[in-house]
Amino acid sequence: MHISAHAQVGLVLAVVTGVGSQIAAAQGQPASAEQVRRGEYLVRFGGCHDCHSPKTMTAAGPAPDATRLLSGHRADAKLPPVPADALGPGRWGAITNNDLTAWAGPWGISFAANLTPDKNTGLGGWSASQFIQTMRTGKHLGIGRPLLPPMPWQDLDALTDQDLTAVFAYLMSLKPVDNQVPPPIPPMK
Ligand code: HEC
């Protein structure tokens, strides 16, 4: 097996920081520091924080809550009811909460997932290849239910396996946040 210099750097970092060990467990091989950096870059450009990070209000407007980055729709958030006549043909296509983590539309209400490496409530149990398959198929873990809007999985499908692996490596390097995102709510009849 070819072991790149990057993989070796990752190995050293894994020992020093302990972060790499989670990635190693999920991926079967340690992620390099370069992969994590590339993943962070792609996550910022990909707008993942817009929907997947709860917000705090700052002088410059709402910003991702640095203590809960990419931890998804807050389990303890209270949402107002969706006004009965807000959505529909000739009305609004979708509405969202102030955090942009909950989305109501013709598909019902979807809640942005917890992307942190928390084992029970996040992606801690996922492998890189399950992450890649999810983005290639638009189905949960590549085999489950279709992902609901507005998750832009078609846009992630444009990335190479290498870049998706980097995105996953970055997600696995985040602070795990225990946050059980609610399941989607089916459309009102
Ligand atoms: C416009 C809002 C939006 C953006 C931007 C967005 N997501 Fe999502 N994402 C969602 C929603 C909503 C869900 C939940 C969908 C569902 O329950 O079917 C989701 C679900 C997911 C899931 C869970 C899939 C599963 O099978 O459980 C992953 C992984 C994910 N997003 C990764 C990302 C990454 C990485 C980015 C940035 C490149 C991103 N998302 C950008 C809204 C968004």
Structure explained in plain terms:
This protein has 189 residues and is α+β, with helices and mostly antiparallel strands. The chain has one domain. Helices cover 35% and strands 10% of the residues. The protein has seven helices and five strands, in the order H-H-H-H-E-E-E-E-E-H-H-H. The strands form two sheets. Strands 3-4-5 form a three-stranded antiparallel beta sheet, with no helix packed on it. A two-stranded antiparallel ribbon has the order 1-2. A hairpin with a 2-residue loop joins strand 4 (102-105) and strand 5. The model is unreliable at 9-27 (pLDDT under 50). Heme C binds next to helix 4.
List keywords for this structure.
single chain; 189 residues; alpha+beta; two-stranded antiparallel sheet; 35% helix; globular; binds heme C
